[in-house]
Write a structure and sequence with these properties.
Keywords: Membrane, Transmembrane, Transmembrane helix. The protein is mainly alpha-helical. It contains 15 helices and no strands. Helix content is 82%, strand content 0%.
């Protein structure tokens, strides 16, 4: 069970930076649909649980060090080659978005130049990738219990200090910008774009399990924790819609309103989320080309980190706007391939 929880924690750590970091993602895919957002969160929990379990088990069965083998296994040579290229591109693109996101967080909290925040994130990510894969998985999993604790406090506070009625909050919520035509598509797209980036590292994480059952249980646990986090963040923002409406980083806004100290704690949590995702995605990108034991691995980490830092100057908002919607549709193809692979096996 300890290994399963570690795998589950690492799965959560992979997703949180790209899927939770600002709270804006949950706002656009769930909270913006009002009370239906809660139903969407439950759908997302089921999706993450099933896909997390399936991907981790595939990783264990194939004992792969890269997503390439898994993609070719579930999608065949021709379609698999296309998915492989697209996943590899998005791994790098979202890593760059995480570097830019760290810069945006430093600017909002400390008023520092975003370049300093991005450089800080690049340096600690590159240094982490010099460790072996088991240490990397442990580091990715570390932030999960901390994040759960902070979000539980914020959600409880938001519910008990709600100033407006549910009907009034619901009306405000429905005036927010959303990323999908309805709550169901919002939930499916959210799962889809997170799986598109998470599939690579999840296969590597699954391959480290001691058995297929341990790998599957880890993916399932990770999916359930992700669902709980979505629910907590969604409820917290819905209850404080009068405060977070129109804000770029709504969760940080709630935390700062509670107490300035909690705002700083939440900012640290945000950086922790961005860090864990950047580590997982950059590692997945590099081992697609260079095995971790290869002599050129460490120079490759430094070179790709430097390129990622320069690319982060494009800006966090621009990167998220361009990359995430494309990833959502790519993710649907991966999900369909995984689903058919699971049915065929049975």
């Amino acid at each position: 069970m300890k290994k399963s929880f570690q795998i589950g924690g690492a799965f959560v750590g992979l997703v949180v930076g790209g899927g939770f970091a600002s709270g804006q993602e949950i706002m656009q895919f769930f909270t913006g649909f009002g009370t239906y957002g809660i139903t969407g969160a439950i759908v997302a929990m089921i999706g993450f649980s099933f896909l997390g379990m399936s991907i981790a088990q595939l990783g264990y069965e194939l004992h792969t060090t890269s997503h390439k083998e898994v993609v070719y296994h579930i999608a065949g040579r021709s379609f698999g080659a296309i998915l492989d290229i697209l996943i590899t591109f998005f791994l790098f693109a979202v890593t760059v978005a995480m570097f830019a996101g760290a810069g945006a967080t430093f600017y909002q909290i400390l008023g520092m130049d975003p370049i300093i925040g991005s450089l800080f994130m690049v340096i600690i990510t590159v240094l982490t990738l010099m460790l072996n894969v088991k240490n990397i998985i442990s580091i990715i999993a570390v932030a999960t219990p901390y994040l759960l604790g902070v979000m539980l406090i914020i959600a409880i506070y938001s519910i008990f200090t709600m100033d407006l009625t549910i009907a009034e909050q619901n009306m405000l919520a429905q005036h927010q910008r959303v990323a999908a035509p309805n709550w169901l598509m919002g939930a499916l797209l959210y799962v889809s774009y997170n799986i598109a980036t998470g599939v690579a590292m999840m296969t590597v994480i699954g391959s480290t399990a001691s058995s297929r059952k341990v790998a599957g249980a880890g993916g399932l646990i990770g999916g359930i924790i992700l669902g709980i986090l979505i629910l907590l963040i969604n409820i917290a923002m819905f209850a404080k819609m009068d405060i977070v409406a129109g804000k770029d980083m709504p969760i940080l806004e709630i935390a700062s309103n509670m107490h300035p100290l909690l705002g700083i704690i939440m900012a640290i949590a945000l950086l922790g989320m961005i860090y864990s995702t950047a580590v997982g995605l950059l590692y997945s990108f590099i081992i697609r080309f260079v095995p971790a034991k290869d002599p050129t691995y460490k120079p490759a980490v430094i070179m790709v980190g430097a390129i990622g830092f320069m690319a982060s100057f494009i800006g966090f908002t621009t990167l998220v706007g361009k990359v995430y919607s494309l990833m959502g549709y790519l993710g649907f193809f991966i999900i369909i391939a995984i689903f058919f692979s699971w049915i065929t096996k049975r």
